[in-house]
Amino acid sequence: MLVDSHCHIEMPEFDDDREAVIERARAAGVGFLLVIGDATNQESLAAGRVLAERTHIATTAGMHPHQARDWSDRTREFIASAVRDPRVAAIGEVGLDYHYDYSPRSDQRKAFEEQAQLAASMEIPLIVHCREAESDVHRVLARACRPGRLNGIMHCFTGNLEFARLMYELGFLISFSGIVTFPRAAAIQEAAADLPDDAILVETDAPYLAPVPHRGKRNEPAFVRYTAEALGRLRGRSADEIAALTTSNFFRLFPGLRKDDSPVH
Ligand SMILES: [Zn+2]
Ligand SMILES: [Zn+2]
């Protein structure tokens, strides 16, 4: 069984064939999906919650760094109330994106810090997005998160092994996306090869970042198996072993979400 620990199948890109996408995930052995909810978009949150009525899907709520210029006390209160819904399993995605810089960096840091503190105070996992902002992400999380417990997921990992180890020490699981299948991803592949077994997850980030051999097309949860296969090659393990490891890591972070081992439907 595989878990897609990060996807956006509530997005309009899937409106025409969402049921077929879930059916293909089921056929590919995917047993659980975490659908990321955008706290600035009521339709996204509502669609995520409808999906999360299924036994094998949960959702989240958080403000992405791209939208951080709109952060306010109201947003924080809204997220705090959204995560009281048992279908909403985490705060996220939150973080820093210095690659696109769609919001000023000071706004990004404020929104990230407050959401990280909220997750820590509510003892709810945090889903972190980081693009070219490794040292600031580490600084914020080192201050907000309690060491010695599992605090969340570093999603779509694009850093190097050293950063991956620092995040793991802070209690974050490192989630690899289809990028790990791209030929020029040497630093990410090194992290994927060397991290401990209890540190790794797989995700699609669908509809983005489809793995090889579907690179450039719309991504979907069934394709998470290509990422598991790539991790298997890098770690000298079978794809099934990677699936078992990453699935047990996911449910260590979200023990309440494990219902049974049947595939998503
Ligand atoms: Zn992201
Ligand atoms: Zn995402």
The neighbouring-strand order within the major sheet is 1-2-3-4-5-6-7-8
User: Which bin fits the share of residues in helices?
Assistant: 25-40%
Oligomer: single chain
Radius of gyration based on Cα positions: 17 Å
What is the CA-CA span between the terminal residues?
A: 13 Å
Q: Name the average pLDDT.
A: 96
How many DSSP-defined strands?
8
How do the SSEs run, as a string of H and E?
EHEHEHEHEHEHEHEHH
What is the SS-derived class?
alpha/beta
Strand content: 15-25%
Quickly count the helices: 9
Uncertain segments are: none
The set of bound ligands, ions and cofactors reads: zinc ion
Q: What's the main sheet like?
A: 8 strands, parallel
Describe the fold and architecture.
The chain is built from nine helices and eight strands. An eight-stranded parallel β-sheet has the order 1-2-3-4-5-6-7-8. The chain is 39% helix and 17% strand. By secondary structure, it is an alpha/beta fold. The two termini are 13 Å apart. One zinc ion binds at residues 93, 129, 155-156.
Any descriptors?
binds zinc ion, eight-stranded parallel β-sheet, 39% helix, single chain, 265 residues, alpha/beta
How would you summarize what this structure contains?
The chain has helices spanning 18-27, 42-51, 73-82, 105-122, 134-144, 161-169, 186-194, 224-235, 239-253, and strands at 2-7, 30-35, 57-61, 88-97, 126-131, 152-154, 172-176, 200-202. By secondary structure, the chain is of the alpha/beta class.
